[in-house]
């Protein structure tokens, strides 16, 4: 019987092999390129191109075999799978050689570890099968048809295997074909993220996709270890497992998180293939990746959303039950289990018709199933809201719930499920009933109370009033319930109406004695307390008034007051010793004389007088002294600010008008002030003092040498990290801040001194400097701002102040220290002050303005002179701290004699502290010492308005 041409021992096939003469002259370059391509494209560890004669398989290219397997360049057919390709003349694909009947006993399985095999025949020019092109994996693998086709296409690139001259032409054709495959590989290379490394992990090749996703150039990647991309997201065990896999010549698959050049993380799905050279040694690793960052992010967001939804579902205090269209429970949260008294295991899957819960209306009638909100929503698709029903739980306890339902619709708009949420209102209903009972009890109590009591709603309508209320206000003939308080008493003054509004906002209003002028002309003195009453939820429901008619008592008290007045005055004199002034008060009295006399001199001096500059210097120095006193008050906590929304650049401009006479003439001021800054809430005087201190300090740091002080303002964002590096960081929130920078070109501050610059009275220049930067720090802290300083010896210092920006419009300045003219007045003004210097300068200023002046050196003398003719005086300028009678006592005496006379309080303390005892008593104005003519004149105008 004649053997087929492709039979292993076919004479014609063996003759063709001999004619080809390929056993002694390999086409190594082309065959190696072919096997390398097969390794890369199919991700296999072994690729072979062999010629097969009657006894052996000869390797023309053997990539991935060990040295021992490949050193002979051939294998006996007893160890070969390729013989079956030659014998059959067609491709052979084996997924697991250990179980395949054709090769499971082949020694190559046991000795070489060959498991998965795919081979295609190599054809000569006469049609004989002269060899095999195959790939081998050491792990089981199901070969896809397209992978077998790829092997056949690669072999087809060679064309029929020819001898001698034919072989040379075939080689050329093979090179061209392999170049075409390389170009196809290049196209694939542009789609995937590809990198190659040596066995130490050093990158030897990186395609454009790799460079683009990592952010590195190819020059920055090639020659560097792959650890350059390490993200820190994986454990050492993760990389140990990966390296063990590829070092064992196995393909590794998995997801890796890398770090790009700019620091951001990205995820890739990676396949790392170990490449074997023709001697069977590990040559390099090829990593083919695809970007899965977006997928990872979406997966993580989906997982987080699901977990969050589950957490919310479990954390809800309201019961939640989901039923499908048949009424079967699909889901229930723990709150539903608690409210209904049924375990969730029993709820899930339970049908609506089989529910053991019995429902009732509030009046006790049965609640039929067809009226249940779930049934209504399922039938109509309409949600139900706040349906109240009682439910008898399995333990026969009655629970009251308020239920809401919401349909779940499919794409066709059909109801497929209903979500029912319900709240346990058992306690609320009990509380409502108790409240109604309590209200009835309260109404009875109020109506029969032996005092004048009334209760109003938020619209000041009467809810209930006691019988005594009707009696005291002479309205026994009227039914006032439901009427407003102002309909019953239209003569109620506006100040009482304002009290009522404040009470509705939460205030409690009390008065020991207040005059009520009735519409019929009668007077009624009342003692009262007005306070809000609250609902169960804490909201204000209205007000309650408790009043007592003390008209007769007040008349008797007034008479007694007149008889005891002298005794009271004597007792007051005994406590005058406690009114001794503090340092700030005394110093401000002294400064009042300096400032007042200086301002008088300026008004009387010709504008072109050379003395004017000296007087302006005195005024500036006096103002600095006054500011120092304010600093002491602010730093100690006794002073308070007059807060305004201001433009910091405008404050700087106004302040720096005084700087030129306070700094060295050799120093140049440079300004870089931002326009349209957001407002900041500041006390202008205090912030001006901060600016003055910083600029003067900068000038002193420059000294007698020429120099420059740069003052800048602007807007910046400050995060928690930056704020934590500044002098004040406690409770400061990250956000937008308006800043002020004062930089000088002076001598700078050495690091040791820089640590102490905020200590009170600390200086490196000379002693007795005062609070200095300590006061600056106190003022900035009081404005909820922060401060930083940086300095370098012989190069200069930079102070930076940050203030939080606020919303809204700028406030108009409360005072304007410049550009006011001096206007004259008339009348008699009493000046009361125990300091002769203050009395003298104030008297001379008032007389220069056209007023007659009566002086009193203490409170007692002032009262005596005032008693002689109370109508004579058009105004009183009154000191707060004096011997004998203090300012508050004198004020009370004078107002009792003439309650319309305007009284202006003078004090060295701040306005808030000085006027605390005069709150609500009609003080006309306040003027803080020291003051000049313009300041005094503004106070006079304010008092006479």
Can you give me a brief rundown of this structure?
This protein is an alpha+beta fold and 945 residues long.
Detailed description of the structure:
This protein is α+β, with helices and mostly antiparallel strands and 945 residues long. It has 31 helices and 34 strands. The strands form seven sheets. A six-stranded antiparallel β-sheet has the order 3-2-1-6-5-4. It has a six-stranded antiparallel β-sheet with strand order 13-12-17-16-15-14, with helices on both faces. The protein is elongated. The N and C termini lie far apart (138 Å). Residues 569-581, 766-770 and 815-821 have low confidence and may be disordered.
Q: What Rg do the Cα atoms give?
A: 50 Å
Number of DSSP helical runs:
31
**Coarse structural class:** alpha+beta
Query: Unreliable runs, pLDDT <50, ≥5 residues?
Result: 569-581, 766-770, 815-821
Summarize the topology.
Elements: H1 11-20, H2 28-42, E1 46-52, E2 56-63, H3 67-70, E3 74-76, H4 83-88, E4 92-94, H5 107-111, E5 116-123, E6 129-137, H6 145-156, H7 164-191, E7 193-197, E8 203-206, H8 208-214, H9 218-221, H10 236-247, E9 252-259, E10 265-276, E11 282-291, H11 293-315, E12 319-324, E13 329-332, H12 334-340, H13 344-347, E14 358-360, H14 373-380, E15 384-392, E16 398-409, E17 415-424, H15 426-447, E18 452-457, E19 462-465, H16 467-472, H17 485-488, H18 494-504, E20 509-517, E21 523-534, E22 540-549, H19 551-573, H20 583-604, H21 612-636, E23 643-646, H22 648-656, E24 667-672, E25 680-683, H23 684-702, E26 707-718, H24 720-723, E27 735-744, H25 751-754, H26 773-782, E28 786-792, E29 796-804, E30 828-832, H27 836-848, E31 852-856, H28 859-868, E32 875-879, H29 887-897, E33 903-907, H30 911-914, E34 925-928, H31 933-944
Parallel strand pairs: 24-26, 30-31, 30-32, 32-33, 33-34
Antiparallel strand pairs: 1-2, 1-6, 2-3, 4-5, 5-6, 7-8, 7-11, 9-10, 10-11, 12-13, 12-17, 14-15, 15-16, 16-17, 18-19, 18-22, 20-21, 21-22, 23-25, 26-27, 27-29, 28-29
Helix pairs in contact: 2-7, 20-21, 20-27, 21-26, 22-23, 23-26, 28-29
């Amino acid at each position: 019987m004649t053997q087929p041409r492709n039979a292993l021992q076919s004479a014609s096939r063996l003759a063709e092999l001999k004619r080809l003469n390929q056993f002694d002259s390999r086409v190594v370059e082309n065959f190696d390129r072919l096997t390398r391509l097969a390794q890369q494209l199919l991700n296999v560890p072994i690729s072979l191109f062999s010629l097969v004669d009657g006894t052996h398989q000869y390797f023309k290219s053997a990539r991935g075999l060990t040295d021992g397997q490949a050193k002979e360049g051939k294998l006996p057919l007893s160890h070969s799978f390729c013989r079956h390709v030659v014998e059959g003349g067609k491709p052979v694909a084996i997924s697991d050689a250990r179980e395949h009947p054709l090769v499971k006993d082949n020694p190559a399985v046991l000795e070489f570890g060959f498991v998965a095999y795919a081979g295609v025949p190599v054809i000569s020019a006469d049609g004989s099968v002269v060899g095999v092109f195959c790939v081998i994996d050491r792990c089981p693998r199901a070969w896809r048809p397209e992978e077998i086709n790829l092997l056949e296409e690669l072999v087809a690139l060679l064309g029929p295997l020819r001898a001698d001259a034919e072989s040379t032409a075939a080689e050329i054709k093979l090179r061209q074909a392999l170049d075409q495959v390389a170009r196809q590989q290049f196209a694939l290379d542009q789609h995937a993220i590809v990198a190659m490394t040596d066995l130490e992990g050093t990158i030897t090749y990186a395609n454009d996709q790799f460079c683009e996703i990592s952010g590195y150039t190819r020059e920055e990647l090639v020659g560097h270890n792959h650890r350059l991309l390490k993200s820190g997201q994986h454990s050492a065990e993760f990389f140990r497992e990966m390296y063990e896999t590829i070092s064992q010549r196995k393909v590794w698959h998995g997801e890796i998180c890398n770090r790009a050049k700019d620091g951001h993380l990205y995820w890739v799905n990676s396949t790392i293939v170990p490449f074997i050279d023709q001697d069977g040694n590990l040559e390099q690793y090829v990593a083919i990746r695809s970007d899965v960052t977006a997928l990872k992010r979406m997966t993580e967001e989906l997982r987080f959303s699901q977990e969050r939804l589950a957490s919310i579902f479990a954390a809800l205090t309201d019961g939640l039950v989901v039923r499908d269209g048949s009424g079967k429970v699909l889901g229930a949260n723990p709150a539903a289990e608690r409210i209904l008294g049924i375990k969730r295991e029993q709820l899930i899957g339970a049908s609506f018709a089989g529910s053991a819960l019995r429902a009732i209306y509030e009046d006790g009638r049965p609640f039929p199933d067809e009226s249940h909100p779930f049934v209504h929503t399922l039938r109509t698709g309409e949600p139900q809201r706040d349906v109240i029903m009682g439910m008898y739980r399995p333990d026969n306890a009655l629970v009251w719930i308020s239920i809401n339902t919401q349909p779940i619709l499919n794409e066709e708009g059909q109801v497929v499920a209903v979500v029912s949420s319900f709240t346990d209102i058992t306690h609320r209903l009990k509380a409502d009933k108790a409240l109604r009972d309590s209200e009835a009890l309260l109404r009875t109590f109020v109506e029969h109370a032996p005092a004048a009591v009334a209760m109003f709603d938020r619209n000041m309508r009467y809810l209930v009033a006691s019988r005594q209320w009707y009696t005291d206000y002479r309205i026994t003939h009227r039914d006032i319930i439901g009427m407003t308080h102002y309909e019953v008493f239209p003569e109620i003054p506006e100040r009482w109406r304002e009290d009522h509004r404040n009470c509705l906002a939460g205030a409690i209003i009390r008065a020991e004695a207040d005059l009520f002028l009735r519409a019929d002309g009668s007077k009624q003195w009342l003692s009262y307390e007005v306070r809000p009453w609250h609902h169960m939820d804490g909201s204000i429901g209205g007000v309650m008034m408790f009043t007592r008619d003390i008209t007769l008592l007040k008349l008797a008290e007034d008479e007694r007051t007149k008889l005891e007045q002298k005794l009271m005055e004597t007792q007051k004199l005994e406590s005058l010793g406690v009114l001794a002034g503090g340092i700030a008060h005394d110093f401000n009295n002294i400064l009042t004389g300096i400032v007042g006399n200086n301002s008088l001199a300026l008004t009387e001096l010709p504008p072109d007088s050379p003395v004017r500059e000296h007087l302006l210097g005195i005024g500036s120095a006096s103002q600095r002294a006054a500011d120092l006193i304010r600093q002491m008050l602010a730093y100690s906590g006794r002073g308070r600010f007059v807060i305004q929304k201001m433009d910091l650049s405008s404050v700087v401009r106004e302040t720096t008008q005084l700087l030129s006479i306070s700094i060295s003439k050799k120093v140049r001021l440079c300004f870089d002030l931002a326009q349209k800054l957001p407002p900041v809430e500041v006390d202008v005087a205090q912030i001006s003092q901060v600016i003055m201190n910083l600029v003067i300090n900068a000038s002193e740091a420059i000294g007698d040498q020429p120099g420059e002080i740069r003052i800048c303002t602007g807007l910046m964002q400050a995060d928690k990290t930056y704020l934590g590096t500044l002098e004040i960081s406690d409770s400061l929130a990250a956000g937008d801040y308006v800043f002020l920078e004062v930089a000088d070109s002076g001598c700078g501050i050495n690091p040791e001194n820089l640590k102490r610059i905020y200590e009170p009275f600390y200086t490196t220049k000379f002693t007795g400097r005062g609070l200095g930067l300590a006061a600056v720090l106190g003022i900035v802290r009081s404005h909820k701002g922060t401060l930083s300083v940086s300095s370098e010896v012989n190069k200069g210092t930079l102070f930076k102040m940050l203030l939080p920006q606020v919303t809204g419009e700028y406030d108009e300045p409360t005072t304007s220290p410049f550009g006011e003219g001096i206007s004259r007045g008339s009348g008699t003004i009493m000046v009361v002050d125990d300091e002769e210097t203050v009395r003298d300068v104030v008297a001379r200023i008032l007389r220069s303005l056209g007023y007659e002046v009566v002086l009193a050196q203490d409170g007692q003398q002032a009262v005596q002179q005032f008693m002689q003719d109370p109508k004579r005086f058009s105004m009183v300028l009154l000191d707060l701290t004096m011997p004998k009678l203090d300012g508050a006592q004198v004020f009370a005496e004078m107002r009792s004699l003439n309650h319309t006379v305007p009284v202006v309080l003078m004090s060295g303390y701040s306005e808030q502290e000085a006027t605390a005892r005069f709150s609500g008593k009609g003080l006309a104005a306040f003027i803080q010492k020291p003051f000049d003519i313009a300041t005094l004149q503004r106070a006079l105008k304010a008092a006479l308005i």
